[in-house]
Amino acid sequence: MGERLLWVGTYTRDSEPTGTGVGVYLAWMDTGSGRLGGGGAAVEAVGPSFLAMHPDGGKVYAVSERMEGALSWFAAGEGWASVTLGETPTGGKAPCHVLVHPAGKHVIAANYFSGSVSVHPIEGDAAPGPAVALLEGEGSGPVPGRQEGPRAHCTAIAPGGRHLLIADLGADLLRVHPFDAEAAEPVGEAQEPVRLEPGTGPRHIAMHPAGFLYVSGELDARVHVLQWDQDKASAWPVGTVDASQYEGEVEAVYPSEIALSPSGERLYVANRGADTVTTFAVEEGGASLRLLAEYPTGGKWPRHFAVTSGHVVVANQMSGTVTTMPIDEEGVAGEPVDRLSIPDPACVLPVGE
Fold first, then answer.
1. Mean pLDDT for the chain overall
2. Helix, strand, or coil here: 79?
3. What is the pLDDT of residue 79?
4. pLDDT > 70: what percent of the chain?
5. What mean pLDDT do residues 256-283 have?
6. pLDDT class of 315 with cuts at 50, 70, 90
7. What Gene3D superfamilies is this protein classified in (predicted)?
8. Sorting pLDDT into bands at 50, 70 and 90, what band is 168?
9. 137 contacts 115 by C-beta, under 8 angstroms
């Protein structure tokens, strides 16, 4: 057994929404017991609410979730971080998600309020350059206050590696673009989007090795299962399940992060409002989900989690805590075993994974 280092992104005084964090924090988890330590600020930054690491492990990229959106980056060494190395505009408003392409040549930011996605080349020192593409969205949905226009909430590389998917919460779409990391202009023209039921509010995407997509519906509180066809560059629905079976008094349930176990046999979903993580069994080769269990996270408003070293590590935004939920022999994320105070945590990024 050993220790797993964790970068934790937060909301800060100048971010949108505002918070009480000061940037990116560094914690550690005992991989045997799930006990947490550390939790001090490592890098000052504005609104680093989502983090991603370069494949070489040497740089961490962070969104700056504010109206004049930007990406920042910092060096990641042996359990320490330098000051922020630089910043580049995303060309959009309030970026809430960042993705490093697996080839390590591009960083991709989803600008929530403007609904756009910016694609940045990674230069020789791993610094993201000015955007080579700004992918604008369009459309709306039926939920007042949330779907008046496009709202880009995350991006993902589709199974097969040839297309970029954009989860558009505001328009109930998965937008699709061809993507070639080796090309000078990596992004192709938009193709026919994947349309979800009105009011779904697609937020995040998990992908099964067999080609199935699992989409958390923030606004309909369901998990949508889709089959991806890389030759047609499209997907179609094959089923849905409720993200939570919580029966307590709560105004609504808003699913957030969704992720598979390393084996692909279990799917985990965090539920804000219910303040739980649900574990599903992945069956029929990835085509269906069966609820196994649902446990409280030990905090309030689980915005994000990471599956690492036999645990689900949860960023509970409104309680200002990070908690660890051990995964048992059946793959179920159970009762939390420890908590660590970090102000307004929004994202957990394990080091070395």
1. 95
2. coil
3. 52
4. 97
5. 98
6. very high
7. YVTN repeat-like/Quinoprotein amine dehydrogenase
8. very high
9. yes
Q: Which residue has the tokens 């779907």?
A: 147
Secondary structure string (H, E, C) spanning the chain: CCEEEEEEEECECCCCCCCCECEEEEEEEECCCCCEEEEEEEEECCCCCCEEECCCCCEEEEEECCCCCEEEEEEECCCCEEEEEEEEECCCCCEEEEEECCCCCEEEEEECCCCEEEEEEECCCCCECCCCEEECCCCCCCCCCCCCCCCEEEEEECCCCCEEEEEECCCCEEEEEEECCCCCCCECCCEEEEECCCCCCEEEEEECCCCEEEEEECCCCEEEEEEEECCCCEEEEEEEEECCCCCCCCCCCEEEEEEECCCCCEEEEEEECCCEEEEEEEEHHHCEEEEEEEEECCCCCEEEEEEECCEEEEEECCCCEEEEEEECCCCCECCCCEEEECCCEEEEEECCC
Model pLDDT, residue 83: 61
User: SS3 for 284?
Assistant: helix
Tokens 């689980």 map to which residue? 302
Instruction: Please tell me the predicted confidence (pLDDT) of residue 77.
Output: 65
